[in-house]
Design brief:
Length: 210
């Protein structure tokens, strides 16, 4: 049986509160408030998963643990990849199991994530150590429609992973951080995303709607 497909895009967000108001205006409901999330990526010796374009992640989202495997990315206007995911009762034990099987942590990245949904798809708002980011996840046409409603154009779409964005941020800033954490990246770097990508221009004040 083929794995369910995850389809999404990211875009940069100058003002998370403004975007949250925009989502409310569109009828989205806040499913979870901004919650601390810690992600650990694992790989085998020689980075066999990375070389195949795959990913194994253990996530702690406000004390709730999930283990996720993602297949090789299919890139187009959106990012699409097979995703298998399951809840984990004890993340520390899962970490021990993975290490016993030969997997080792290769990257930790954290953020504060708020989840929104309109019943068809999801929009998540992330405050990360390298800037504010939103993700739109759902069916391709729905993604494009919601993006248009938010004033996001295809030129603003980002299909890179957080790991890719982090290493690009390191190259552009000269940071010596080994992981994308607030402690290692430093508080001064938050919101100063120095990458050569189009930036979403949300208005400082919510827009009036007809």
């Amino acid at each position: 049986m083929p794995a369910p497909q995850e389809v999404e895009i990211k875009f940069l967000v100058p003002h998370l509160r403004t975007l949250a108001h925009e989502l409310q205006q569109l009828g989205f409901k806040n499913e979870t408030p901004s919650t601390h999330e810690v992600n650990t990526l694992y790989d085998l010796l020689g980075q066999k998963l990375r070389r195949k374009g795959e990913l194994l992640r253990l996530r702690d989202y406000g004390g709730k643990w999930r283990l996720t495997h993602k297949a090789k990315v299919k890139l187009g206007r959106h990012k699409s990849r097979g995703e298998l995911e399951t809840g984990v009762a004890d993340g520390h034990q899962m970490d021990a199991i993975l290490r016993a099987l030969g997997y080792s942590p290769v990257l930790v990245y954290e953020k504060y994530r708020a989840e929104w949904s309109d019943g068809e798809g999801h929009v998540v708002l992330d405050r990360t150590p390298i800037g504010n980011v939103a993700e739109i996840e759902g069916k391709p046409r729905w993604i494009d429609r919601i993006a248009r409603e938010l004033g996001v154009t295809p030129a603003d779409y980002i299909t890179k992973s957080y790991a890719e964005l982090f290493f690009e941020w390191k190259r552009n800033t000269g940071s010596g951080a080994e992981n994308m954490t607030f402690r290692e990246c430093g508080t001064k770097s938050s919101g100063q995303w120095i990458v050569k990508l189009p930036v979403k221009k949300l208005l400082a004040q919510p827009r009036a709607r007809n």
